[in-house]
Amino acid sequence: MKSIEIAICDDETALRETLQRKIEKHCYNAGIPCQIYGFDSGDALLAQPAENIPDILFLDIQMPGKDGMRTARDLRRKKRDILLIFVTALSEYVYEAFDVNAFHYLVKPFDDEKLYEVLDNALLQYAERTERAISSAAPQNESANQIANAESQNSRTAPRAILVKRGGLSTKVLLTDIIYAEVFNRKIMLHTVNGDIEYYGKLTDLCEQTGADFYRTHRAYLVNLEYVEKYNADTVWLETDAVPVSKKQFAGFVRQYMQYISRTSGKGADK
C-alpha cells in the first residue's frame, strides 16, 4: 500500500506537534503507512512543489499572513483532490469551508475519539479513491486470448465455501455470499445475500475457515469486508445492517480493511 502523505498546517507549535504524534500513533496502530509533515504557515505549505502537496491536510484557519481559507483556495489549484480538514476554534467559518470543498471541519477543543473518527473516514475515502483510480487505469480492451485464459482459470478455481450442518443435512455456503455472521445461545446466524442460515457452532471455528477477507469486529460478530460501506469507532455499516465494533478490535479492523482494499484494488469495477 502506498504511503499516505499527511500534513498539519498550524502556527501553534504545541498543537501541531501534538496532532502529529497522535496521527502517527493512530496510523501505526492501524498498520497504515504514512508520512507526516508540519508547516507553521500557509505560505510555507504553498511554497512546496505540486508533487509534494499532501494527500490529507489538517489546516488551521486563523494564521498570520495567508489564512487557512485563502491557503485552501490556492491549494485546490495545485492539487484538486487533496482532502482538507479544517481545524479552528471558531465555528463561524463552516459555511466558507463548503466553498473549498472541505472534507471535514474540526472545532477546537475536540477529543481524540473525534479526531480518529475524522482521520479514519479520510483514510477510507483516500483508499476508495485510489482503488477507483487503479481500476480506471486498467486496460479496457483485452485480447480474445486473455479473456479465454481468464475464463478458463475461473472455471478451474472453485469459489471457497463452507459446509453448514443442520438437521442432518450439510449445506454448502459460498463465503462470498456471507455478509456477516453473529453468534448467540451457541448458535451462529449467517446473514447471506440469499437469506439467513442458522446452525449450532462456534464463531472462533468460523473465523478460522473464512480467512483474511473477514474480520471479527466484536466477540459476537464476524463481517465480510467486501460488504463494508462505512465505519466509525464503534459501528461498521454493511450493505444490509450495522454491527458493533469493540474498542479493542477497532485498530485491527481498520488495518485489515485497508489491507483488504489494497489487496483487491483493480480486480474489478466498484460494486
Task: Explain the overall architecture.
- With 271 residues, this protein is of the alpha/beta class.
- Helix content is 39%, strand content 29%.
- The chain has eight helices and 15 strands.
- It has helices at 13-30, 42-46, 68-78, 94-99, 112-137, 144-156, 203-210, 247-264; strands at residues 4-9, 34-39, 56-60, 83-88, 104-107, 161-166, 169-174, 178-184, 187-192, 195-200, 214-218, 221-224, 228-231, 235-238, 242-244.
- Strands 2-1-3-4-5 form a five-stranded parallel beta sheet. It has a five-stranded antiparallel beta sheet with strand order 10-9-8-12-11, with helices on both faces. A three-stranded antiparallel beta sheet has the order 13-14-15.
- Helix 5 (112-137) packs parallel to helix 8.
- The longest helix is centred in the middle third of the chain and has 26 residues, at 112-137.
- The model is unreliable at 140-158 (pLDDT under 50).
- Radius of gyration equals 22 Å
Strand order of the largest sheet: 2-1-3-4-5
Question: Can you summarize the main beta sheet?
Answer: 5 strands, parallel
- Rounded mean pLDDT score: 83
**Amino-to-carboxy terminus distance:** 21 Å
